[in-house]
Amino acid sequence: MSRVLVVDTSVARAAGGRPGAGFPSPQCTEVLECIAEYHLVAMSKPLRLEWDKHATNYALNWLGEQIGRKRVRLGTPAWSGEVPLLEAAQSLGGNGPEEVQKDLHLVALAMVHDRRVVSNDLRLRTLLGRIQDPPNELRELMWASVIAGEALPWVKEGYPDRDMLRVGHKGD
Question: Is residue 51 part of a domain?
């Protein structure tokens, strides 16, 4: 059975490039192609609004094809850890709590599915890992970066559990 992955808008914004073309990123394109072949994606209304605003034409066409193939789980399910996460995020100080709140929909969507995110945003992964006393299940969230070279091999292998990708891993 296929797992369900959340694809951050940062990947959709960079997909569609050709090798050697720089930005958009051919690595993001390759990750989307691999996901399309083997896996399902989750899409909430807030995430879809971000995609509609920021994604490349390539990524929007990709998403349309995945919806047509019934490979997208649509909906905005509630995660019981949202309020505890926002409260715990206050421990970050500065603008950290606001950054967590801005992408809370992404984290919540991943948490109610298979707790897996592909993104280019390593800052949020780092912030989530620095939260003092987060909801326990947040430490089960896997967050792979395309630009750091983590996502493609992980996606090809079917998103296995990898400690180095867990939020809060010592490498963050």
Answer: yes
Is residue 2 a contact partner of residue 38, using CB atoms and an 8 Å limit? yes
Sign of CA dihedral 102, 108, 144, 31: negative
| Residue range(s) defining the domain that contains residue 28 | 4-165
Helix (H, G, I), strand (E, B) or coil at 56: coil
d(CA 138, CA 43): 19
pLDDT truncated to tens, each residue of the chain (172 aa)? Answer: 578 999 999 999 999 866 555 566 889 999 999 999 889 999 999 999 999 999 999 999 999 999 999 999 999 888 999 999 999 999 999 999 999 999 999 999 999 999 999 999 899 999 999 999 888 899 999 999 998 999 999 999 999 999 999 998 865 4
Nearest-angstrom CA–CA distance, 38 and 28:
16
Q: The pTM is what? A: 0.92
Q: Are 128 and 101 in contact (CB under 8 A)?
A: no
Q: In the chain, how many domains are there? A: 1
In a domain, 142, yes or no: yes
H/E stretch holding 7: strand 4-7
